[in-house]
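residues and backbone:
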Amino acid sequence: MQQLDGAPAPATDLQQLALLGFGHFTTMRVETGGVRGLSLHLDRLVRDCRAVFGADLDRDRVPDLVSRAIADEPDLVLVRVTVFDPDLTLGAPGAPSRPRVLVTPRPPAGAPPSALRVRTTAYARDLPAVKHTGLFGALHARAEAQRAGWDDAVFADGRGWLSEGPTWNLGFVADGRVVWPDAEVLPGVTAELLARDAPGTRAAVTREDLERMSAAFAMNAGFGVRPISAIDDVVFDPDHPALAELDRAYQAIPFEPLAARR
């Protein structure tokens, strides 16, 4: 059940979030009461709360709020934790703030996702270090790509460096090693967890560099590791062995229990 600070969310508060759209969030996959990278999700919420609202967030309270909201949900559920202040206004978003925590559970995707076909789009998100609720530009890029027959978009910054997708981080495989794009991106929890097992190399990757990559993949908390079969007209092997190794590494990451932090 969707809850705001542990109670049913009033429609007026949700309306304010929808109208103002000023907040930040994280999305986690909860499996039987545990989350891969829970500490990193909590670190993100605390860090972003300070960046967006200039306020501190009680990180130890968040797992309890999540546990309450998913008490009647299945053992496998996606949870979005959104931090916002319904009392802020369009004219004074910098006023002293008391951020509140909205927990929204939703079912995970059913079947394992297929490989993505994406097209490059010139775009750089606002304040990329923060996972904020301002998703219009990113989702518009996705919508335009889908209307043109692709599954999604992948962003290229002003230098032509490929960075990330609208809701996922990007990685490549070249010469048997993972290549992480050296660009300003949203620091994803799944990407950070995978980078610990596959540190690889960090390098600028342009459209012209794609031909030397043997595989490409997307990653986020919702689907884990997802192969990319094409970026523009460059085709990749979605069954490359390195991707299976990355997926196994991700699946082996231990869960941090929500209850341990109550």
Observations:
- The first strand starts at residue 3 and ends at 4.
- The chain has six helices and 15 strands.
- The chain has two domains: 3-106, 116-251.
- The first helix runs from residue 11 to 20.
